[in-house]
Write a structure and sequence with these properties.
Blueprint (H helix, E strand, L loop, with lengths): L3 E4 L11 E20 L10 E21 L4 H12 L5 E10 L4 E9 L12 H10 L1 E2 L2 E2 H15 L4 H14 L1
Parallel strand pairs: 1-5
Antiparallel strand pairs: 1-3, 2-3, 2-4, 4-5, 6-7
Length: 176
């Protein structure tokens, strides 16, 4: 069974599983957004950071990548992703259709934000996001590193994201 995973944030630069194929992909109905407070990987309970999540929004589109798990690793890949992504239950695991750059549509494992979860913080002004990201640190390192890696990989993929670009510039200035 072929297993695809939709990547839009850290999966772009740190999938953590054996990827057999990577294809540009678009997910309709969701926007990439720093709308999840991170209390494990990029922040703490007392000083939460922010991580990207897919926030459902009518007419929205998110450009990212579809990652095909290597044949025979699907079960292990799913177990790994669940351990990584469902650590606090703020993400919901969904099987959603994504459109590949080739025009083909595939069903992909996709992690979206639960808007009813306590860690959801959609709609924060960009300046507030920048202040949080510039200072938060969690178990996987500085929140700024997460932002910079994601922005850099989106740029390399040719994916424009004006909010992330602004945040990367602002956070770099705040940390200087």
């Amino acid at each position: 069974m072929t297993m695809w995973v939709f990547g839009y944030g850290s999966l772009l630069w740190n999938p953590g599983f054996e990827v057999a194929e990577e294809v540009s992909a678009t997910l309709s109905g969701y926007a990439r957004s720093f709308c999840m407070r991170s209390i494990h990987h990029r922040g703490t309970d007392t000083e939460p950071g922010l991580v990207l999540a897919l926030d459902e929004a009518e007419g929205a589109m998110c450009n990212g990548v579809a990652l095909r798990a290597a044949a025979g690793t699907e079960e292990a890949t799913l177990a790994y992703l669940r351990e990584r992504e469902l650590i606090s239950s703020a993400y919901l695991e969904r099987m959603l259709d994504v459109t590949l750059g080739t025009g083909q549509t595939v069903n992909a494992v996709t992690y979206v934000i639960d808007p009813d979860h306590v860690q959801y913080c959609g709609g924060l002004p960009l300046e507030e996001q920048a202040q949080i990201i510039a200072h938060a640190v969690g178990g996987r390192g500085p929140n700024s590193e997460y932002l910079f890696n994601t922005a850099e990989h989106l740029f390399k993929l040719g994916v424009a994201d004006s909010d992330l670009d602004w945040l990367a510039r602002r956070v770099a200035a705040l940390r200087a």
